[in-house]
Amino acid sequence: MNKLAKRLTWIAAGAAVGVAVAKLSKKRGARSADPQGLRHSGTTVLETERLILRRFTLEDAEPMYQNWAHDPEVTKYLTWPPHQDVDVSEEIIDSWVSQYEKGNYYNWAIELKELGEPIGNISVVQRDDRARRAHIGYCLGKDWWHQGIMTEALGAVIKYLFREGYLRVESRHNVKNPHSGDVMKKCGMQYEGTFKGYEWDNSGIGDAAFYAILKEDYENTKGGACQ
Questions:
Q1: 94 is in which domain, residue-wise?
Q2: Most buried of the four, 20, 75, 125, 173, by CB within 10 Å?
Q3: 20 inside domain
Q4: How many domains does the chain have?
Q5: What is the pLDDT of residues 102-122, one digit of tens each?
Q6: How far is it, in rounded angstroms, from Cα 14 to Cα 208?
Q7: 132: domain CATH number?
Q8: pLDDT in the model for residue 226
Q9: The predicted structure's pLDDT at residue 30
Q10: How far is CA 207 from the centre of its chain?
Q11: How many Å apart are CA 161 and CA 166, to the nearest integer?
């Protein structure tokens, strides 16, 4: 056998092995290694003292509508309008549920243990996996404001995202809504600056204050101020 024939034989053998390995990995549901070092575990259940953070189900449509989504006070500094009826909430949840199999989709219902139903939502609204950066958004029914609940939820999500391999977790708020910034500060996030006329929400065009925490700083503070 000449050199060319041997080379072609080895190439064919290698290709056959590669196909077999690929089929085996697919059969086992294995995920390929992420070049950015991210786990991509997706929306998994997180538990705190008072809360269970979990995936939404269609059964959550009624409590979502009643507990926060219908309320213009809750949505005042958000970019989506109050839901007109429970059907809107169901449609939104249905669109979320269809994305849960994606390993890079992070969207939790905030369930209050003593109530047994969701009272708000926290999610990754923007990502840059190359920079290993995640941007968090959240909302909570007004009956549960000023009780440390969102601080508890945000702290759990920050901890989880750093375990996932993200190096920076950030968020922002309309400067007319300073209580949201208080939540960020309680979780060890640092104020980085205000962008004038940065975004539109239901209150109009406004200034946005940015906060962030790096994984190294989180670890140096032994889990952040809200842990």
A1: 36-220
A2: 173
A3: no
A4: 1
A5: 999 999 999 999 999 999 999
A6: 54
A7: 3.40.630.30
A8: 59
A9: 41
A10: 23
A11: 6
Q: What sign does the dihedral 208-139-161-129 (CA atoms) show?
A: negative
Query: Encoding tokens for residue 31?
Result: 């995920």
Q: Region 185-207: what's the mean pLDDT?
A: 97
pLDDT at 37: 87
Read off the pTM: 0.84
What local confidence, expressed as pLDDT, does residue 107 receive? 98
Q: Mind spelling out the 3-state secondary structure of the chain?
A: CCHHHHHHHHHHHHHHHHHHHHHHHHHHCCCCCCCCCCCCCCCCCEECCCEEEECCCHHHHHHHHHHHHCCHHHHCCCCCCCCCCHHHHHHHHHHHHCCCCCCCCCEEEEEECCCCEEEEEEEEEEEECCCCEEEEEEEECHHHCCCCHHHHHHHHHHHHHHHHCCCEEEEEEECCCHHHHHHHHHCCCEEEEEEEEEEEECCEEEEEEEEEEEHHHHHHCCCCCCC
Q: For position 35, what pLDDT does the model report?
A: 61
Residue 170 lies in a domain: yes
